[in-house]
Amino acid sequence: MKSDLLQWICCPACKGDLALTVAAGDATTVAEGTLTCAPCGHTYPIVRGVPRFVAHDGYVKTFSYEWNKWSRVQFDPANGRTESEETFTEKTGFTPADLEGRLVLDVGCGAGRFLEIASRWGARAIGIDFSFAVEASQTNLGQRPNVDVIQADVFHLPFRDEVFDIIFSIGVLHHTRDTREAFLRLPRHLKNGGQIAVWLYYYTDQLYNRASDFWRRVVRGWPNGAIYAFCWTLCLLFSRLYSQPFMSRRPWGHLRRVLPVNTHPDWHWRVLDTFDWYSPMYQDKDCSPERVASWCREGQLHDVEILSFPTSIRAVKDVENTRPLIKALPDLHNRRLVVFGAGAAGVLAFEELRKMGLAHQVVGVCDNDPAKAGKAFEGHTVTPFAALARDSYDHIVIASQYGLPAISAQLRDSGLVDKQDFFSIGFVENLGPLLRLARQDA
Ligand SMILES: C[S@@+](CC[C@H](N)C(=O)[O-])C[C@H]1O[C@@H](n2cnc3c(N)ncnc32)[C@H](O)[C@@H]1O
Ligand SMILES: [Zn+2]
To answer: How many other C-beta atoms lie within 10 A of the C-beta of residue 230?
Structure first.
């Protein structure tokens, strides 16, 4: 723990000031010690540099296992990839300029992959997690002078009100017993004008959701090692098969809906994400942008923006109520669309566009894979992006699960503007409900 942390934390039980006793460490970094609340007498130990505001890891034991087993797999500095940084940009919309010099909180930091980005971009970065994932994030980042890791529960946060410039939480709040309540614990710690970004699960395929809940009930109670062996075996049997485009079509597609397996190109990442899907105690998969936007209204959060990946939402704390609830949205009515991605995700995108009555507005399909150029796809001929004339379409809809960050960057580099000239298919799916909310609010 860095000693300057003391100015922002308080007793989670009574909000009283905490007094620091150092048992090991130096003037700036505390390795072992105690935080004592003067008003209520509670004491909180600092163990291996991490202040501990919870006595155990409760319902998140699978996460304690997960992030200590795969502590470096998704950690950009360790794996030589930039995928976590791209995911962070995609899911929060933040840039280095937004974070530099700011006080930033990562709620549910896991092994610290996003806390790492906040610290690298120059923030004073604080991460909390309920599980013993904090051991992994502290080992990964504890030596950085601008990082602190705290073991705490989102329902009992040890922070003073209105201290943070930015709060983000990626893939966390839907793993608590009450997603809305967990979300609403956050805004009070944000300064007025500060920004919040969260990413939450939203899956509308009920067969997929029911199968996932069934499997989670089956494996609940198994030792973590047994769940790991189960997920490892599923990956071995199914991940290559699931990467084939024909798996997106019925009847084959049903198999991946009832027995989902991650298909990430990196084997360890694949097993990690499959474990992450099958093992959590809580998994709220119904966090629609509409639902989250309504929580924003309750939390005095305005200018709600939906980012590319559903449900990624960013909003601004606005206690005076001067901003609109929903930030301006594009209207796709009668616009010419190009689908970017002629693979499995492209097939699903066309299915969605048909449901939304937008498929007839598609004027072309493009893909970066030269082998697909000239081939027929959903009634169109696949062309390379470079061959598309800008005046032949109005918007591009990206249909690619893992390629989304790279394709977004490619389109930005060619002068197109995110959320104006191009969107993900997930973004398009959620426009309708958000336009309705914006109209209600106006
Ligand atoms: C899927 S992991 C995501 C970790 C990290 N944000 C990432 O994306 O790499 C979810 C994390 O939420 C944490 N979590 C679950 N319930 C929590 C709670 N009540 N308070 C704080 N953290 C919690 C878990 O311990 C776990 O590390
Ligand atoms: Zn107290």
So the answer is: 18
Cβ-Cβ contacts under 8 Å for 48 (sequence gap 6 or more) = 31, 32, 135, 138
CA of 197 to the centre of ligand 2 (A): 29
Sequence-separated contacts (24+) of 41-46 with Cβ below 8 Å: 42/11, 42/13, 42/14, 44/11, 44/18, 44/158, 46/1
Distance of CA 154 from the midpoint of ligand 1 (Å): 9
Instruction: Report whether CATH 3.30.230.10 matches the domain 337-438.
Output: no
For 116-172, where are the E strands, in sequence order? 124-129, 147-151, 164-170
User: Cα of 260 to ligand 2 centre, how many Å?
Assistant: 45
Cα-to-centroid distance, 351 and ligand 1 (Å): 33
- At 195-221, the pLDDT tens digits run 999 999 999 889 999 999 999 999 989
Q: Which ligand lies nearest to the CA atom of residue 15 in the structure?
A: 2
Q: Which two tokens stand for residue 441?
A: 């609010």
> Rounded CA gap, 255 and 258, in Å?
5
Give the ligand at the shortest distance from the Cα of 106: 1
Q: Is the pLDDT of residue 10 over 90?
A: yes
Long-range contacts of 254-258 (CB under 8 A, 24+ apart): 254/207, 257/205, 257/207, 257/208, 257/211, 258/207, 258/208, 258/211
Are the C-beta atoms of 337 and 393 separated by less than 8 Å? yes
Would you put residue 87 in left (φ > 0), alpha (ψ -120 to 50) or beta? alpha
CA of 44 to the centre of ligand 2 (A): 10
Instruction: For residues 420 and 28, give the distance between their C-alpha atoms in angstroms, rounded to a whole number.
Output: 46
The verdict on the CB of residue 88 being under 6 Å from ligand 1 is no
Phi-psi region of 311 (alpha: psi -120 to 50; beta: other; left: phi over 0): beta
Distances, alpha carbon 238 to alpha carbons 101, 206, 254, 354, 435, in Å = 45, 21, 13, 29, 39
Ligand 1: nearest atom to the Cα of 276: 1
Average of pLDDT values for 91-99? 95
Is the shortest distance between the CB of 131 and ligand 1 below 6 Å? Answer: yes
The domain limits of the chain are 1-52, 206-278, 337-438
Residue pair 81/88 in contact by the 8 Å Cβ criterion? no
pLDDT (tens digit, 9 = 90+) per residue, 386-398? 999 999 999 999 9
SS3 of 332-346: the string is: CCCCCEEEECCCHHH
- Probe ligand 1: pick from 70, 130, 141, 149, max atoms within 8 Å of CB? 130
Is the Cα torsion angle 185, 190, 192, 194 positive or negative in sign? negative
